Amino acid sequence: MNQEKNDTEVGTRIKQIRTALHFQQKEFAVRMGVSGPTLSEIENGKYKPGFDFLEKLSQDFEVNLHYVFFGEGEMFLGPGRRYIEKIRSRGASPEDLRKFSWYFERSSIMHYHILSAFNSKLVEDKTNIEKEVGEYNPADGK
Predict the structure, then answer these.
(1) How far apart (Å, rounded) are the C-alpha atoms in residues 126 and 119?
(2) Number of separate domains in the chain
(3) What angle is formed at CA 87 by the lines to CA 81 and CA 89, rounded to 5 degrees?
């Protein structure tokens, strides 16, 4: 396979990933730390994604890099697949999740209220929550 064709296919798969995550190009570019035009060039196969971009894609969204480079295997690994299914099954729109993430990352007021609500709900219904997800272990974060 020639390099130009491979670059185009990698770009196409990155676009498919962005679409599967329900991101518009501009939003995804910001999330990935690149400009909109740079993401467009990557998706069109004119630029190669850099290491930081690929690492962020893998870490933040649990994307299978083997899929990105070779088109083989699952698009998402483990919990990444569950992320997509949760969006679909719980009725939370991708826009709601993006908005939540945007405010939570930037607002100490939002941190306070979300963490307060989390702690209250955990105290109120800890037994049922732990039945659903297991007990939290601070030593390993699980």
Answers:
(1) 10
(2) 2
(3) 95
d(CA 139, CA 45) in angstroms, rounded, equals 43
d(CA 83, CA 138): 23
As given in the structure block, the two tokens for residue 101 are: 């993430």
pTM confidence score? 0.56
Q: Is residue 142 part of a domain?
A: no
DSSP-assigned letter for residue 94: H
At 36-86, the pLDDT tens digits run: 999 999 999 999 999 899 988 988 888 889 899 998 888 888 655 555 666
Residue 88 token pair: 């679909």
Residue pLDDT, tens place only, 4-40 = 566 679 999 999 999 988 899 999 999 999 999 999 9
User: What gap in Å lies between CA 125 and CA 103, rounded to an integer?
Assistant: 26
Provide the residue range defining the domain that includes 23.
1-91
